[in-house]
């Protein structure tokens, strides 16, 4: 019996070896894009960076150019390092370049319903259209402003109370706004059960998105572990992941459904779409499932609130490092709206430097520096280079945002690069065109995110000053990963003035 199993295993290994070798030989005969030299079988496995991937990718651009090809364990991957290449392939040839590779851990954790990770096709299109009907509509976005205001107010109040804990306050703020907007639920403290579940789901999503998970796919090994060798522990971990995902997918939705039925629902993404009485039933109608699954995506599926919170952390770090920028932004706020209230959305047009600070923070270090991979669905030729079907295609967001032609002196934090004669001017270099990905898969939450970040930026700067303690390092440092956070740093946050402190205390009372 045992020898049969060994024989079968050997046959599979030898078969795989020859398959990979054949594919390798076929592809090298064509004119693939340049890239680091692969080894037989493992390809460029050992060239793949383990930390700060964006630095290695930048080096590859210098060595090999705008389109770089690697092959990891037989899996072709192309990195696009210029606006020209991302525009030409991911945007203009979007029909071919909009598929997604499989993310094995996402499937195992129970995210198959999530359109962010679905193959390009009808189902993806229907879900995305429903999502965009709210998140890309000017009217709906305006109706979300109260949710942004509530979470921004909780944030400044919490910062005043515990300034050292600013990161956690940002995290809470991002999750709070998502629950408010999607379900009309008020979850303004860490004690709320949904927040813990959302956090747990986001941790798994972050792991699932890290390149080692989707390139090497250790899940197949995990699944093969026998129960006596720890397989039981793996199985119960997976069960917990799936239970968390299902709770987020069903529980808040069911609450809204009940409140729509008894007429007490607050306006929200879910309630707005469920208002049609035809839609609500026993939970099995296609329309109801569609609404439930698109609402849940914004919670944990794409790590959206984590991305927004990391963008907030980058802003806080940049302000701590650049007191001159802070002062300039605060002068703008004082001269436009005075010191007796906090900025609001109506002030946005008149505060161009604040918008520029928000945009420069996103540019300086994008929370998802290498985006989410696309997959090519048919063989393609670009500038004489052959790109095989099934190839993963990564738009190298970090590289685009540090292009010295589009952003002169790219390693200097300089919001004024987006200001011309006192007005906001980013017609040719708006970082949001790259930060949120590309083509048909571009982030459908980008306008919503900018609203959220803008209010946080404006209100934080109106209320507080931040500095570094004496002797602290002035070098910004970021962790590696698909979602890349600033490394923890010490800082001192104080209310800007007695008047600012009073304003925040007043918010706390209301
Ligand atoms: C700073 C915050 C955010 C950043 C940096 C960000 C960035 C991205 C990126 C790079 C992608 C992949 C695009 C591509 O495949 O080319 C993406 C996809 C997506 N984002 Fe965001 N995002 C943010 C916030 C949000 C928010 C708040 C929401 C929801 C309200 C959201 C919803 C989505 C969805 C649903 C997708 C999948 C789109 C698809 O596959 O069709 N994102 N985002």
Automatic annotation (TrEMBL):
SUPFAM superfamilies, sorted: Cytochrome P450
Cofactor entry: heme
Gene Ontology molecular function terms on file: heme binding; iron ion binding; monooxygenase activity; oxidoreductase activity, acting on paired donors, with incorporation or reduction of molecular oxygen
Pfam families assigned: p450 (PF00067)
CDD domains attached to this UniProt entry: CYP64-like
UniProt binding sites for heme: 443
InterPro entries from the UniProt entry: Cyt_P450, Cyt_P450_CS, Cyt_P450_E_grp-I, Cyt_P450_sf, Cytochrome_P450_fung
Keywords assigned by UniProt, alphabetized: Heme, Iron, Metal-binding, Monooxygenase, Oxidoreductase
Pathway: Secondary metabolite biosynthesis
Family, as annotated: Belongs to the cytochrome P450 family.
PANTHER family linked: P450, PUTATIVE (EUROFUNG)-RELATED (PTHR46300:SF7), P450, PUTATIVE (EUROFUNG)-RELATED-RELATED (PTHR46300)
Protein name as it appears in the record: Cytochrome P450
Species whose genome carries this gene: Favolaschia claudopus
Lineage: Eukaryota, Fungi, Dikarya, Basidiomycota, Agaricomycotina
